[in-house]
Amino acid sequence: MALLREKGLEPQIIEYLKTPYTAAQLKQLLGQLKMPASKLLRKKEAVAAAIDPAKLSEDQLIEAMARNPIVVERPIVVSAGKAALGRPPEAVLSVL
After folding, report:
1. Which sign does the torsion angle of CA 84, 88, 92, 93 carry?
2. Is 64 exposed, middle or buried (0-12, 13-18, 19+ CB in 10 A)?
3. Cβ count near 51 (within 10 Å)
């Protein structure tokens, strides 16, 4: 967020644990990120141990992520129809 604010931008923050992504929203984000769901899976979360991307179709993995939003990697910055995962933070510069 500091990087965005340095650029004079005030981000709209979506608290994804309070307002979880739907499967459709995740599909849209993945399209904007140009990555498969497995790359957006946060494996460090305990609940992620029960989600095996190798055993699930893309749609099944997206559904599992929608049911367990804590496993979605973050932050994700969306701007002008493009999205970037903020790891490392400089990656978001490509969508500003």
Report:
1. negative
2. buried
3. 21
CA distance linking residue 53 with residue 94, whole number of Å: 28
* Rounded-to-integer distance, Cα 34 and Cα 14, Å: 21
Prediction pTM value: 0.88
% of residues, the chain, pLDDT over 90: 77
- The label of the residue with tokens 């990656």 reads 91
Q: Could you tell me the domains of the chain?
A: 2-95 (3.40.30.10)
pLDDT-derived band at 65 (thresholds 50, 70, 90) equals very high
Decide: 48 and 42 in contact? Cβ < 8 Å.
yes
The secondary structure of 14-71 as a DSSP string is --TTTSPPPHHHHHHHHHHHT--GGGGB-TTSGGGGG--GGGS-HHHHHHHHHH-GGG
User: How far apart are alpha carbons 84 and 53 in whole angstroms?
Assistant: 21
